[in-house]
Amino acid sequence: MGRKAQISLVAIVFTAIIAALLVYLWDSSREDRIAEGVTIGGIDVGGLEADAARRQVQQSLLNPINETVTVKYGGEKFTLTKHESDISADIDKTIDEAVAVSREGGLPGRTWRAVTGGEVDEEITPKISYDEDAVDHFISHIAGNVNQDAVNASVKPAGGKLVPVSSQNGISLDQDALHDEVVKALEDPADRTVKAEVDKVKPEVTTAEVAEKYPTYIVVDRSTFTLTLYRDLKEEKQYTVAIGAQGFDTPTGLYHIQDKQVDPVWNVPDSDWAGSLAGQTIPPGPDNPLKARWMGIYNGAGIHGTSDTASLGSAASHGCVRMAVPDVIDLYDRVDVGTPIYIG
């Protein structure tokens, strides 16, 4: 090799060494710089020094995540404060990760990106922490205020009337979905408001099912001496009756028709008031006060016809419910054994 060639070779090698040294020094001066295309929680920190990126994240991320998270349902609002959630963000660790990502690819790769204007397409999730128990407690608190049990349909005798209680749907908060949304809001500075979602809870017993369960229902109002027959929960017919005299009160409460008889036999109670008839069995006929029909209710008390129509509309019996003979025959044909009867 000639001298000129040797000199040229040395010059080339020297130039390469100088260039490499300059590239190294240039790269070293940028070791704390974040590459273009890197974002932290949606915040563009590309091209920033670590300290500048830290300030940017502090302003754009940490301050907003300290804001209260609000859950809305209908006209109600429920809030989770920074103090309650104990939320915090490890900004230093997040910035270190952004710098480390920017240094990937080695010196050649970093140099090539700088020369060509290339970017590092990297989204870094901020290192945010919070008290999971506090979040769970927050969700439970909301559920306690939002949830409503379904109301089963039923019937409620009151004031001498049969009052149907309609079924109502309940409300159940989707706690798992709300938990996910609250966590998302805690970690997302852009949106701190969450809308709670609920599911409808159907009742176990509907209004239609109650009507089917009670095709007939009897209500006896002692204060007005009336017996009202309901069919499919609607008033069908009303009768004037006599009830137990003082000391022989007709039993109050909810009972059912236990048995039915046409021209019933009277098994006289073994009581002082029965006198010489006590304990006897009286067949149908003029000596039997149970006229035409019998519908047993409870412990010897029942509904029956009477020839003493003057007693109707008063407290005159020994505990039974008396009806006019045509009325008791009419009622007898309208009800079955098992029909509920409420006496109030």
Secondary structure layout plus pairing:
Layout: H1 3-28, E1 38-40, E2 43-44, H2 50-65, E3 69-73, E4 76-80, H3 82-85, E5 88-89, H4 91-102, H5 106-116, E6 122-124, E7 128-129, H6 132-146, E8 154-158, E9 161-165, E10 170-173, H7 175-187, E11 193-195, E12 198-201, H8 207-213, E13 216-221, E14 226-231, E15 234-240, E16 243-244, E17 253-256, E18 259-262, E19 266-267, E20 281-282, E21 291-298, E22 301-306, E23 315-317, E24 321-324, H9 325-332, E25 340-343
Parallel strand pairs: 1-6, 3-11, 13-25, 16-23, 22-24
Antiparallel strand pairs: 1-2, 3-4, 5-7, 8-9, 10-12, 13-14, 14-15, 17-25, 18-21, 19-20, 21-22
Helix pairs in contact: 2-4, 6-7
Would you mind describing this structure in some detail?
This protein is an alpha+beta fold and 344 residues long. Among the domains are: 103 residues, no CATH class; 130 residues, L,D-transpeptidase catalytic domain-like, CATH 2.40.440. 33% of the residues lie in helices and 29% in strands. The protein has 9 helices and 25 strands. β21 and β22 form a beta hairpin. α6 crosses α7. The termini are far apart. The model has no long low-confidence stretch (mean pLDDT 87).
Radius of gyration: 45 Å
Query: How much β-strand is present in the residues?
Result: 25-35%
Q: Pairing-aware structural class of the strands and helices?
A: alpha+beta
CATH H-level superfamily title of the domain at 214-343: L,D-transpeptidase catalytic domain-like
